[in-house]
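Table S2 (continued). Query chain:
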Amino acid sequence: MKNANCIKIHSYAGLLISSAFSRNSHGAINDDARESIQHESALKYRARWKSIWVLYMTMFFSSVEFAIVMSSLWPYLKRVDPKVDTNFIGWTNSGFSLCQMIGSFVFGIWCNYLPAMQPLLFSLLLTIAGSLLYGYADSFPNDGLNMILIARLLLGLSAGNSAVCRTVLSESTTLKERTRAFANLAMWQAVGFAFGPAMQVATIPIGDKGLHIGSLKMNLNIYTAPGFLGFVTAVINIIALAIWFRKFEIDIYEGKKPAEIANGKSVKPDRVAVLVATVMFFVFLSVFALNETIMSPLLMDEFGWTNFQTVFYGGIILAVAGVIAVFCFHIVKWLSLIFTERAIIAGGLLTILIGFIVYLPWGHEYPALEISKIIKHGNKTVKEITPGCPQKFEWCTTQPKLYFPQYITAATLVGIGYPIGFLAVNTLYSKILGPRQQGIYMAWISGVGSFARVIGPLLVTHAYVGIGPRWTFFAVDVIVTFSILLLGCTYHRLVPFHEYLVRISNIKV
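Corresponding output:
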């Protein structure tokens, strides 16, 4: 029999935070609490949400660990090996996502049969190993690239814990709580994406050369600092889980029969709706993977930024994007009171489509080319490179340049559309499944999302190198347009499980 620990959780963590979360300024229990007290005491309600806050923290730290390297990874690779090819960053990001896909399935199945604490703790041990290896890669002059790649693979496996967090969250909240719960989970994930780049910017005072700590055989600089910071956050996360995360029994069916045995009939969720929601999830994650992979090369090639400028200004851009995402998640909470999730998804896709149309370069100027000079210093010759668009890329002289205001406008639109649509897809998917154990389902959609981030970086880097940004962005416009058409054709089927059940058999659950 499947272990209920992945469904029923309890904790005594986060007393102050949870109290603020579950009570208003007068100390009274809020509306969600009053609704939930019909099935559980107020004390158990608050204890359940304290444990859920530990899940929020886990997703937050996981996002920080991922986002902190987004602006510095490509400069770090070039520092370790100046001859590294642009495609290598695609392989590195794809390797991360492939391992995340594997980790999602493994941890999701693990969570279905054994306590959720086990896969969560194991994933954080992988985070520690990957973070240390990433930080020390600078100390391996001959194998630095391989060390970074292996580190990203380990970190990708650890990121599979998102399937566990989504599973526990979906199966430990009522339908009325779920939109808020997933909004908060996504919000803390977005806060992590904002806080990560901000932490990268905060390492700027350490400098490009940084410090060498002989006793630890450590090179601490702006490129390796994210690894060591990831180690610290993982340790904090492990301590929090060990102290505060406990199992808690809750009636996830809210006193109703599981969907599989409603009225003695076996009722499965609408397969078409599940498939379409999965495709939407794939599209949103693909767009995110494209942005995260292409940002650093684009800034360096189009605007001639140096490694240091890319880390600093790129980190600021990502931090601002994270703040926008947090704001958007709050907006979604309000929008969900007025519109259905499927309507919000459509709005997110349309905003992304407009963003990638703005991305298209149509001016009359071309990006400045990269220039290499050989300079003599006494008896030594030094190769000096002026940043710009590599001359080996044919499109550098045939495609117009991307203007910085144009880039900021497009990135802002995409940064608004992605979090709005992504959160709505997460919530709708859980509602489509209905009151059932969702470990395997959440592992599946997490795996599909990871697969999107496997394919996305590979395709975008190869397209970017081969055909340039104009046609790469045009291809994304085609994909998003197809997604909007698919959503329109299946719009009437994208409803919560209880509405689907009523529609097909008039069964009330």
